[in-house]
Every structure is written in structure tokens, then in C-alpha cells.
Fold this sequence. Notes:
By secondary structure, the chain is mainly α. The protein is 77% helix and 0% strand.
Amino acid sequence: MLLDHDRLGLPLRLSLGAIGTLVVAFLLAPIVFITLLSFGSSPWLIFPPPGWTLQWYREMWADPGWLQAMWHSTRVALVVTALSVSLGFITALALVRGTFPGRALLRGFFITPMVLPVVVLAVALYALCLKVGLTGTFVGFVIGHLVIALPFSIITLCNALEGYDFALEEAALICGATPWQVKWRVTLPALRLSLFAAGVFSFLVSWDEVVVSIFMATPGMETLPVRIWSALRQDLSPVIAAVSTVLIGITLLFMLIAALFKKDDDHGH
């Protein structure tokens, strides 16, 4: 093959390795930077830190405002994940297995929230929720985040269903299984990795969402990204770096779980 690694030659392999290292460093530098600042002893976001401390993490856990924002983000993200995967699975089944006209147009419509500017979507959702009295409510947050998360589930599950061998379902039906038993015991287990991936995407999209949340937030109901944004407008406390590091840690934890889940699935095959 033209791009066979072993045939590239030492200079080209070293060049590619150097470019890859620079790209990784460029992507990881902000994460490492904010993580180091969260352990700095200075009351300002100064780099390099003059010393090291866990004071900002203690202040974060002692502040009920941060804990309440984390709880709101977690509740919203969990509900959005459940709804996004459920609705995404049903929608993907209809789009892939349905025979009705306009499926391609409908599929494009479902991914519209991914291509629209988020601020435009946020203004539209805010106007709608304001009209029906859902601004600043838990339901309003769930609706806003679900609109953004659902396309990720639909795309993931549509791709999985397009590569799925439906002969397995026909074989189960021939063996006497009911349509519900086929879905429960054949289709869902075969798609478990894609369902899990859709869940991870949906949770992280909701967990990190800030633009829609800013429009929806009230003093009594704000998510963690909104709390961070509000705190940044007041001062540059290292507590913000500590909270950001916790957000990064949770995201990395989900990515690790997804990688382990995929590894077990690969071994199972």
C-alpha cells in the first residue's frame, strides 16, 4: 500500500510522528493548563502557579451554589440521555426500515439543530418556552437540551441499523419469537454498543451545553456551565478552574467507560 507505515522510510515516519505530537499537544494544552491552574496557590489565575494547594477544591465543595448547579446539570443530562436514546432509536427504526416517501427529507430535518447556529436555536427555544411558561424550569431545560442531543442519537443509531443484518430478526421470527421478543432479545442486544454510544453523546452534549442554558436559566435553576459563565463575569477565581477540572474529569470518565465497553464488545465477537 502507498501509505504503509513500514515503507515510508525513517525521515518521513519521524516527520509524521512530530506532526502528530504537535497536534496532540495543541489539543491537550488548554486542558493541562486549566488543570494546573486549579491546583495553583495564587488567588488569581496566574501561570505558572507560585505554589500548589487543594484550597480551591475545598471552597468548591463547600459552596452550595456549585453543588446545586452540579445536581441540576446531572438531573437534566440523565433525563435527556434517556429520552434521546429512546426517541432516537424509534426514529432511526422508522427512517431506516420505513418505506414511506420523504424519508431522506425527514432525516435531514432531524439533524437541522446540528447545522443551525446554536444562538439562533436558543432564541427560538427561549421564545417558545417563554410563551408556554417553561423558562427557568426543569422541563424547559430538558426540552432545550433534547433538541440539541437528539440528532446525535439519530445519526448514531441510523448508521448502526444500516449495517445491521435483519436476517437475524427473520430467523428469530421463523423460530417462533414474537415481534416484541425479537426487538428485546435480538435487535437491542445487537445494537447495545451503538445505544451506549448514543447515550454517551447525549449525556455529554447536555452536560456541556451552555448557550441554550443561559437563555433558560433563572437564579433558582442554573446548570454548571451557566454557573461557570456567571462566575467568570464577576472575577477570575481559581475555583472556576477547579470546577472546570471536575467537568473535564467527568467527561474523561465517560470516554474511558465507552472505550472499556467497546473493548469488551470486541472481545465478545
